[in-house]
Amino acid sequence: MLVQEQTKLIGSVAKESGVPIKTIRYYEELGLLKTSGRTEGGFRIFSSDVLVRLNFIKRAQRLGLSLAEIKDFLDIYDRGELPCDRVKIELEDKVSQIEKQIQQLQILKLELQGLLSGWKTIPEHPEETICPIIERA
Predict the structure, then answer these.
(1) Quick one: pLDDT at residue 66?
(2) Does some domain include residue 114?
(3) Structural domain boundaries, residue 93
(4) Using the 8-state DSSP alphabet, how is residue 49 labeled?
(5) CA distance readout (Å), 95 to 89, 91, 92, 107
(6) What does the alpha-carbon distance between residue 79 and residue 123 come to, in Å, rounded to a whole number?
(7) Strand partners, 7
């Protein structure tokens, strides 16, 4: 006797995962998810592991990973390997990018504070400028 793998219709996948049907279709189009087929009515059918994949995708996105990066990880996983080494490299790159952004934001903050410290409400020649504080930089 064959044991049939438990499957889920796209609507129940959306309900259980909190991911909209439109997004699930998009993920399938990108190759992040694979259907097990379709019903006679044309509804997508997914294997029960789709929820694990969706949770992985959502968590990876919250960590700042792109869908292309996530697809690479899932492709490695689908070949029967764990993508943890690749994930570690990408997360280290994200930390580096965030550190650069923090430095750029600190420089911008100092520049804005400098502009605000010299604030004058009414310019001497208002017809020649839109806002002299911004334009003097």
Answers:
(1) 96
(2) yes
(3) 7-135
(4) T
(5) 10, 6, 5, 19
(6) 66
(7) 47
Cβ-contact 24, 10 below 8 angstroms: yes
- Quote the pLDDT of residue 1: 37
- Is residue 43 in a domain? yes
- Strand 37-38 with 44-47, pairing: antiparallel
Q: Which amino acid is at 10?
A: I
With 80 as the cut, is the pLDDT of residue 47 above it?
yes
> Strand, helix or coil at 33?
coil
Q: Alpha helix locations (H) across the chain?
A: 10-17, 21-30, 50-62, 67-78, 84-117, 132-135
Longest dimension (CA), the chain: 90
In angstroms, how far is the first alpha carbon of the chain from the final one? Answer: 78
Rounded-to-integer distance, Cα 46 and Cα 87, Å: 25
Compute CA 38 distance to the chain's CA centroid, rounded to the nearest angstrom.
28
**Per-residue pLDDT at 124 exceeds 50:** yes
Residue 124 tokens, joined: 């001497």
Residue at 112 is within a domain? yes
Phi, psi at 130, each rounded to 5°: -90, -50
